[in-house]
Structure formats: C-alpha cells, structure tokens
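Following the same procedure, backbone shapes were mapped to integers, as reproduced here:
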Amino acid sequence: MDKRHLSRLFKDRLRRVVSSHPDGRGHFMRATGIDRSALSQFLSPDTDRMPRAETLRRIAAVSGVSVDWLLCLENAPEGRQEVTQSVQIEKEVQADGSTPLDQWRHEAAGFKLRTVPSTLPDIVSLAPETKQRDAHEDARGGGVENVLERISLNDMDVEVAMPLQTLQDLSARSGLWREASRDSCRRQLFHMARICGENYPALRLHLYDGTRVFSAPFTVFGNQRVALYIGDAYLVVSGPDQVRGFARQFDRLVRQAVIGSDRVHDTLIGLAEAV
C-alpha cells in the first residue's frame, strides 16, 4: 500500500474516531496532545501527513481502538487487546464471608454504574420470602449477581441493559421460569415496573433484542473496574483502556435497545398483565 493510499484510509478512520468521541473534539485533542493545526492536517485530503508512532499510540489509547486498525492493518476497531496483570479473579464470597462488591460499590460512588445482568438485576428483583422456599418459586430466575445490592440511587446513576426476551420468558413462564407460579411471575414484573417508574431517570433499564445482540454479564463500576460474572466468581478488569472498552460496549447495547428506559415501565406493566 503506497503512502498516499494509506493516508486516505487513515484519514477516514481518524475522522470516524474523532466524530464518535463521546466528549467531543476538544476533549479528544486535549487527551491525545494533538493541537488544532496538527489535527486539521491529519484530516485534510490535501496532505499526506501521518502522525508519529507515539501520537498514533495516544490516539489508540484514548479512542479504544488499535494502532493496527488506524493503519488499516485489521478491520476490527478494538483489535487484539492485551490482557495484563490488571486482570484477576475474585470469588463472589470470600473465605471470611465478605464480598468484594461492597468495596467496588464504595469506590464507584459518585460515578455511573452500568450493568448487564445474567438474569434479572437484583435492584428490581423480589427475593424469595424464605431461604427454604423452593427455587422454582424464586421469580428472579436464579444466578442473581447482587452487584446492585444496597446501592443508593441518590449517590449513583445506574443503567441496566438486558435482553427483552428475558422478561418475555418471565411473563410466559418459560425458560428459567417454566416451573414458577403465575402469581410469583406477575408480582415480579409489577415490582420491576414500580421500581423503574419511581426511580427514573436515576435508574434506567434498556431492553435490547437478544436474538440479534449478545452480551456476557458484566458490570462497569465507574471508571475503576469491570467485573464479568462467571458463576460464583468475577473476572475483574481494571486496566483503564479495558474499562473504557467495556463502557463503550455497554453504550452500544443502549444504542441498539428496542425499548428505551423512558418506555420500559409501560412494557413491564403489559408483560405483567399478560402472565
């Protein structure tokens, strides 16, 4: 690939990166250390100027893309991200009975918390009335991570993204809820509707089409860490680039929602009445 052709392709990708930067062009320039004149030359179709290697590295780090993608050496923007010592596994319950979730929630206070639950998010879930209750009567569906337990919506914005089909299964008493009682499923959906309605917009639930979009369960705690739920433990990622990458992944789920958080209350009411 000659320099002129590479320059044209790079300019197109840089233009996409700049235009999609969540905090605008000014923040992008400050974060990358590129001044207005240099950025104009990098984007101008009349020059073949390319950034130096260190500038390319900063653009990639700030934008969450790979240098190879910027140079058109691969098609996936995220490229092959490195897994470093910032990744570890934390048990859901420690040997002394404590949980790392309390610390993570405390450290994320004042920031946004974004979560993709494995079933129903615990902040809108009805717990079983007794620990001895048959698991089939627990309308949460099992596998609740409890990442939102004891969260104060006065201190933190919470966004949840989940498949619409999970709630449709709950309403139809199918899938995880195939043996749950009609009453427990109905109460669970009405409870979700009430919590979402009363706490909007501090609590925002987005529903995407699970037949078209897939996501593993994960939670972004502010800008400090991401916890991927893997059963009775969490795969914890704390590298800044990776945390930003997961935040962007969550935002993509929100953009692909088929039912937005401002309409989810009515959807939940309708599903509850259909049980």
